Amino acid sequence: MPLLIGTDAGLYRVEDVPFDRGDAEQVLDCGVVTAVKTFDHAAGVFVASSTGAFRSTDGGDTWTDLGVPLGDRFWHAGQSEVWSILATNEALYAGTNDPYIFRSVDDGETWAELKGFRKLPSRGYWESPIDPHYARLRVLESVPGRPEHLIAGVEAGGIHLSRDGGRTWLDRRETIVDDVHQVLPISEDVWLAATGYLDHDLENLGLGHAVGSGGLFRTVDGGDSWERLDPGNDFSYIRRVFVHDGTLYFCGGEEAPPAWVNDEHDAALFRSDNFGRDFERISYPGEPHEVIETWTVFEGDVICGAGLFDVPDQREDVEGRLMQKDDDDTFESVGRLEANISRLEPL
Fold first, then answer.
1. Which of 6, 105, 258, 295 has CB atoms 3.0–4.6 Å from 343's, for a disulfide?
2. Whether this model's pTM surpasses 0.90
3. What is the fold of 57-334?
4. Hey, where are the domains in the chain?
């Protein structure tokens, strides 16, 4: 079974784990990979990246550019990027920075913007660490059993909901104002959200509308309200949460990415066997600085990828690390790549 590995320097493929340096094959030169996903009701594998959205139906040998509208933005960052992608049984969706949501009902041949998302009242308060006009639509998910119910997470700008396939939207920023990295739907009503926060220096400059406090959140009413599961946790800048066989895992940093440039932060990995009532800190390779960004199950084993992400100046001395969990919750390194490992997807 091949494994696709998304990095900050394109998409790679390996045939087995563990693997040696140099064994991974680059199959897509697409810049920073922001999503790699397969869906039960859509053929092939989808990739979102800083250069666009792509699809492969032959295991990653060849790729088709889906042509998601990008265009040029007026600020310094220039062309926009695709940060999230979703396939339901009715349509394809793609989320970009600024941010916009686009939908295709003809399998990616044409795209139309969902302009209702642009009209959300809190939009004027969305921002990112890079530029106040550069918020990212990092999360697009559908609700289990209700494919017309969509979840959009903005970095930074909260979580917003649609119950009609994206035509209209409910503004839910008041429930979570944080830097939303991931929403993990468990059931129709129960979801988890991994959040971070903007550097508080932005607030001192008058830009910090969405500084928040980060942390791991849970909703039991389909996103109408959220409860923080880790109050008081010093490692509250959380990139991803993962649930496997009843155990919940997340890795958090003490500081936001600006502090990661010079290792002025610590990171920690936690597990919970009672869905967040209690957490236990466990060790992993790469601590105390590398942050785990992505999780999956590959050939029956839990694996995860780490690095230092979204730092203002990318460090050349930091490699991506792939880890595998043993039965006793011991983690070991099973592969290295030259760039941060941000996404994993078995084929």
1. 6
2. yes
3. Methylamine Dehydrogenase; Chain H (2.130.10)
4. 57-334
